[in-house]
Amino acid sequence: MLAGPTAVGKGTVSAYVRDHFPQVWLSVSATTRTPRPGEVDGVQYVFLSQDEFDDMVRRGEFLEHAVVHGQASYGTPREPVERARAEGLLPLLEIDLQGARQVREAMPDAHLVFLAPPDMDELVRRLVGRGTEDEAERTRRLRTAETEMAAIEEFDSVIVNDDVRRAAEELVHLMQTDAH
């Protein structure tokens, strides 16, 4: 399970893993947020209405779920993760801090990896550089990032995302070591 603060590059590292390590199965989270430019339903996320999301919560279909940044709901559908594990694949979940805590409860054997920025200045630069959030949203996300960084000790491993390829390789190495 990969977690870390907003704009640290979880999506970039996960995409690199997906493209270069076929033994890793990348979970696709569900969300109620609006797609960003270029995002495709079912690829980056499964985009749901709030009613659809709430129905899945009521049916117990999420491994973890949360409201993130006080706005959109996100969750990891349970069944595909369980199926991937049964098939001997290495499932990778890209989740937030709340989700990581729920996964720890639901799957105590899960290895939780925290993806950290080289420093907070770099995190701010990445968030601003994305250009996908307005000023109010950036401020909200930076506040959340400070809280997320403070939880680093809750994780089994920490990877600093100073180089995407190196971070991805380290993540896969940890996943393979943990699986054996």
Automatic annotation (TrEMBL):
Gene3D superfamilies per record: Guanylate Kinase phosphate binding domain, P-loop containing nucleotide triphosphate hydrolases
Subcellular location: Cytoplasm
Domain of life: Bacteria
Keywords: ATP-binding, Cytoplasm, Kinase, Nucleotide-binding, Transferase
Positions contributing to ATP binding: 4-11
Main location: cytoplasm
Record's GO cellular component terms: cytosol
Coiled-coil annotated spans: none
EC number(s) per entry: 2.7.4.8
Catalyses which reaction(s): GMP + ATP = GDP + ADP
Function summary: Essential for recycling GMP and indirectly, cGMP.
Family named by the database record: Belongs to the guanylate kinase family.
Protein name as annotated: Guanylate kinase
Annotated gene: gmk
